[in-house]
Amino acid sequence: MKDYPDKMTAEQARTFRDDVLNIVSQIPCGKVTTYGHIAALAGWASHSRMVGRTLRYTPEARSLPCHRVVNIAGRTAPGWSRQRFLLEEEGVSFKSNGHVDMQKHLWEPLMTLTKDEKTETNDGTN
Choosing a second label site near 18 at 20 to 30 A (CA), which of 45, 57, 61, 106? Predict the structure, then answer.
């Protein structure tokens, strides 16, 4: 088995899950953000797919505005037709190709936490 430098411990995975849920809960109405941006905010920029899995398989995510999370191109989740409806209800506009107009609606909070800062916090040295 390959040793991945970005592999998480169980504790880091729990913290990542909690961070993802917290970040998603803060996305304002009428705005969207990306899986990659959430992963970066949580301190694990290379784990955007794990953000998607967290939102799909964590029961607590059902009460969050997960419909406000799209991919980097502004595409909605495949097979989730209700996502577009919910976004349109919030005033999110779509381009002719069916993607969210990211220039108008991208939410990028100012505070970011780098992976190194996250590691320092998680390992108890800071």
Answer: 106
d(CA 37, CA 100): 16
pLDDT digits (tens, 9 = 90+) for 57-74: 999 999 999 999 999 999
Closest CA to 51 of 32, 70, 74: 70
pLDDT tens digits, 95-118: 999 999 999 999 988 654 444 544
Q: What are phi and psi of 79, to 5 degrees?
A: 80, 5
Task: Determine contact, residues 63/71, Cβ cutoff 8 Å.
Answer: no
Torsion of CA 123, 11, 67, 93, to 10 degrees: 20
Q: What is the DSSP code (8-state) at residue 91?
A: T
